Every structure is written in C-alpha cells, then in structure tokens.
Amino acid sequence: MNSPYQTIVSFILIIMPLLGAIAMIVPNCLSLGLQTYQQSLGSSGALFGLFYYIILSSLMFVLTLLHENPHLKLSLYFIGLAVVLKVASRKLSPK
Fold it and tell me: Cα 91 to chain center, whole Å?
C-alpha cells in the first residue's frame, strides 16, 4: 500500500522533467519567432508571452469544463481543435 507522501513524491518526480523541458522549449520557440522583430524585441516578446499564456489558460479553462460527460465533450473539443488547426495551417501555408 502506497503512502500519500510516496504518491506525491513519485508524481513530482515524473512531472519535473516535463516542466523542465517546457521551461526550456518555450523561450527558444519565442526567440525563433521573434528574430525578425529585433528592433522591438522586448515589447514583442512581452506580447508574444502574454498571448501564449492567455491561450494556454483559456484551453485549461475549457478542459476544466469537460468533467461532466467527458466522453462527448472531449471528442467535440478535439474535433473542434483539429478543425481550427487545419484552417490555420491552410491560411499560413505558402501558396
């Protein structure tokens, strides 16, 4: 039988590499996206980070709404997300 502390410690040990990787990936991705905006790097970086966290927190809010009848809602969520990504990829792809 696992003690509560053992469960918490194992959860933290599993999550730490994931959060560490995210902490390294996000700034690198933001810096790559902002290479053409060198003259206003501070402002554009701040806005880019702001919108990143607004989108992330909005998606987390939507995921918290999926606790009642999660199968239908989660399926609709992923279908909607796939449609949005498909439309965005068509608009952003070079012609």
Answer: 21
Distance in angstroms (rounded) separating the CA atoms of residues 29 and 42: 15
DSSP 47-58: HHHHHHHHHHHH
Alpha-carbon span 26 to 45, nearest angstrom: 11
- Phi and psi at residue 37, in whole multiples of 5°? -115, 45
pTM of model > 0.85:
no
Region of residue 31 (phi > 0: left; psi between -120 and 50: alpha; otherwise: beta): alpha
What is the distance between the alpha carbons of residues 79 and 40, in angstroms, rounded to a whole number?
37
Segment 8-22, tens digit of pLDDT: 888 889 999 998 998
Backbone angles phi, psi at 69, to 5 degrees: 50, 60
